[in-house]
Amino acid sequence: MSHAASVFVSLNMAVLTVSDTRNEQTDTSGKYLVSALSEAGHQLVDKAILKDDKYQVRAQVSAWIANPDIQVVLITGGTGFTGRDTTPEAIIPLLDSQIDGFGELFRHLTYQELGTSTVQSRAMAGLANHTAIFCMPGSTGACKTAWQGILLEQLNAQHKPCNFVQHLIETRS
């Protein structure tokens, strides 16, 4: 497949909220991501809310990576510096490769909004088994910044000169 397709490709996605305090009623970040991906033409395959426990997070994301019906995992929460924030530690061992530019660009965009406080963000991303995993902070504002500033275009097969779609729709080995 070429770097940019002429037609939109709907991707199957899962959304994970990592939080010790949020539930379905108070999970504004997860709700935002579900709404945004749907509005963009993608499909929600699964959604979960888990406590900040790296082994539970790792188990859930591992299952989604192994599921051939899921091409993208969006994770919100657990990327800060508190003792309970372990999303990067849960996800990094699962990755085949990291997408360093995601965290770098996210922090650049966030700097424009928050100034130097953005250095405390451990937003990160990577690929595993033709599945893209994007880890964002738990605030709804951070999810909006990541979606509108990066993911909306990079998860669109029509975005040129390149996007992630070609890496996600390849046949899994």
TrEMBL record:
One of its GO terms (biological process) is Mo-molybdopterin cofactor biosynthetic process. SUPFAM superfamilies: Molybdenum cofactor biosynthesis proteins. It comes from Oceanisphaera avium. Residues 14-158 form the MoaB/Mog domain. One of its GO terms (cellular component) is cytosol. InterPro entries: MoaB, MoaB/Mog-like_dom_sf, MoaB/Mog_dom, MoaB_proteobac, MoCF_biosynth_CS. Keywords: GTP-binding, Molybdenum cofactor biosynthesis, Nucleotide-binding. This is Molybdenum cofactor biosynthesis protein B. Gene3D superfamilies: MoaB/Mog-like domain. Transmembrane segments: none annotated. May be involved in the biosynthesis of molybdopterin. Can bind GTP and has low GTPase activity. Can bind MPT, but has no MPT adenylyl transferase activity. Pathway: Cofactor biosynthesis; molybdopterin biosynthesis. GO terms for molecular function: GTP binding. Belongs to the MoaB/Mog family.
